[in-house]
Design a protein that fits this description.
Layout lengths: L5 H4 L13 E6 L9 H9 L6 H12 L7 H18 L6 E5 L6 H11 L3 E6 L6 H18 L6 E4 L7 H21 L5 H4 E8 L3 H5 L12 H21 L7 E7 L14 H7 L7 E5 L8 H17 L3 E4 L7 H16 L41
Parallel strand pairs: 1-2, 1-3, 3-4, 5-6, 5-7, 7-8
Length: about 400
């Protein structure tokens, strides 16, 4: 855990002592901002994995369709501005720095800015809500790499807010979105019976099964899908219960967790079922409409715009289904406010018992537990904000 604050060095799962952070690090995935950036960006994302160039060219089509520009950087600029506005409205003096894992500005650039501005204790918000290697541990590895590359170990410390999959700020926008989508179906689909005619698909990025089973602490015993699948399922259940109450529904609406954006070789098992396969089967089950909920995503980046708005929507059209895609949280006020609340939890040392969580799985840990989200293919790498595997 070198590189974290003294509070994190204790290894306790929840940090309930105040820490005087002097800046927030918004850590993004990154994305290309022009046609010439696309292949270099994809090489960054897949470095060390031996992905052939022809496979990169296949994925590049998604970005080239949008002018070689991923929306994710602009979305992070908007989120940064929204966080700054919320902090200012509350009278909280915490500057927001922004750095990406895979494209400009990099995390190391944000650390350079922190050095120039005299910031020494950063609290990081990673732009992913769930537990897995790619959505949590890899960010923590990259924090350690960036400190090493910049020579700032011992000068700058980085902690990280907890995974926020079940924080009200993240969940509330989805509850609203599903409710709005159901209301629109009632208004636009003739003689619709929500319980009989509608299927709600909660979509998230598929990951290798070997990564999934290692997501979250092993002692929690989450099973084959690990904490990654368990967290998504728990949040989906909360959303469906809230929608049923809000709309005063007398029957359950069918729903399931589906996966998208698989990128591995056929020989490697990944989490299933694929969203397009599920959509193709819905007419035979008597469904007339499908609602797609991008539950695994914070904003409308490429996997949402291409894999859901293009591919999944086309699958629904081919199946003769009326389809709607629910918005991601983006800069929804509840989401932005919730992220600030997560920062204040750590700054103020809020006790675990006072932290909001909408599922029985949370509140999640401040300090990741041993072996959490380990990637056996990539091998051990030093991380921050967690214990050694």
């Amino acid at each position: 855990m070198p590189g974290g604050t003294d509070a994190v060095q204790t290894g306790e799962p929840y940090i309930e002592t105040a820490v005087d952070y002097d800046a927030i690090l918004l850590a993004g995935f990154g994305g290309p901002e022009g046609q010439d950036d696309v292949i270099p960006f994809l090489r960054n994302v897949t470095r060390g994995r031996g992905i052939p160039e022809e496979r990169l060219e296949e994925v590049a089509v998604h970005y080239r369709h949008h002018g070689g520009v991923s929306p994710i950087n602009d979305q992070n600029r908007e989120l940064k501005a929204a966080l700054e506005a919320e902090l200012a409205a509350r009278g909280i003096d915490l500057p927001v720095l922004w750095g990406n894992r895979n494209w400009d500005p990099y995390i190391r650039d944000a650390l350079g800015e922190a050095k120039e501005r005299g910031f020494t204790k950063l609290i990081a918000i990673a732009t992913s809500a769930y537990s897995s290697f790619s959505s949590c541990r890899q960010y923590r590895e990259d924090f350690a790499i960036a400190l090493d590359e910049t020579g700032l170990y011992g000068e700058i410390q980085i902690d990280k807010v907890r995974q926020f999959f079940d924080h009200p700020g993240f969940v509330t926008p989805f509850i609203e979105g599903v409710g709005d989508a159901l209301a629109k179906i009632v208004a636009e689909v003739r003689d619709v019976d929500l319980a009989a005619d509608v299927e709600i698909l909660f979509a998230t990025h598929s990951i290798p099964s070997t990564d999934a089973v290692r997501s979250g602490p092993a002692e929690r015993g989450f099973g084959e899908g690990g904490a990654y699948a368990a967290q998504h399922l728990a949040v989906a259940e909360v959303i469906m219960e809230a929608v049923k109450t809000d709309l005063a529904l007398d029957r359950e609406i069918d729903w399931q967790l589906v996966y998208q954006s698989r990128s591995g070789p056929p020989s490697m098992p990944w989490l299933e079922p694929d969203i397009n396969d599920v959509i193709a089967e819905l007419p035979a089950a008597g469904k007339r409409a499908v609602i797609i909920v991008p539950l695994g995503f914070m904003s409308d980046h490429m996997e949402v715009l291409w894999d859901l708005d293009n591919e999944a929507t086309e699958s629904a059209q081919e199946a003769g289904l009326y389809s709607l895609r629910v918005p991601t949280p983006g800069t929804h006020h509840e989401f932005v406010s919730g992220l600030v609340d997560l920062v204040l939890e750590r700054r103020n040392g809020t006790p675990q018992s006072e932290r909001p969580a909408m599922t029985d799985l949370g509140p999640w840990y401040d300090v990741c537990r041993p072996g959490c989200c380990e990637n056996v293919r990539a091998g051990f790498k030093p991380t921050l904000a967690g214990l050694r595997p």
